[in-house]
Amino acid sequence: MGNKLYSELIESLEEVLAVERGEREAASETYYRGYIRVLEKENGETVWTLKEAAVELRKTDLSVYKTAADLLKAVRSILWQSQRGMAELLGIPKATYVNWEQGRVQPRGPSVSLIKMVINNPYELMKASVSTRKLTALGN
To answer: Which residues contact residue 17 at a Cβ distance below 8 angstroms, ignoring those fewer than 6 apart?
Structure first.
């Protein structure tokens, strides 16, 4: 490992320890609901929200994507989500989402409607997904 990389690594670890000891605030923070990324902060300032990403997604010309796999990758990128986060937004298993995104399986029927719901309003779908998960946990 080069000296510069090693020094940066040590500096990063010292920052983590200082945050843990309460000597300073974290430089950046990521907030999740389940696996869905909803907020990013840097130095205490909000720099990204899922709500803002939803607005950006609605402004994006998605007609340039010719396959479902390419469309899903683009949507996930715009929404700053992991594959697990997108699967949770859609209410499907991660493996199903990965198969769609990698083009091994094509979404059909109700799945296409779910994808359209994510594209049209991911923030509202996230809130519904979290509520449904709570109801399921309660046995309803």
So the answer is: none
How many helices and strands in the chain, by DSSP H and E? 7, 3
Q: Bridge-partner residues for 31, per DSSP?
A: 39
Place of tokens 């298993």: 93
SS (H, E, C) 43-69: CCEEEEEHHHHHHHHHHCCHHHCCCHH
Q: E strands within the chain?
A: 28-33, 36-42, 45-49
Q: Work out the average pLDDT over 113-123.
A: 91
Q: Give the model confidence (pLDDT) of 23-37 as tens digits.
A: 887 788 899 988 999
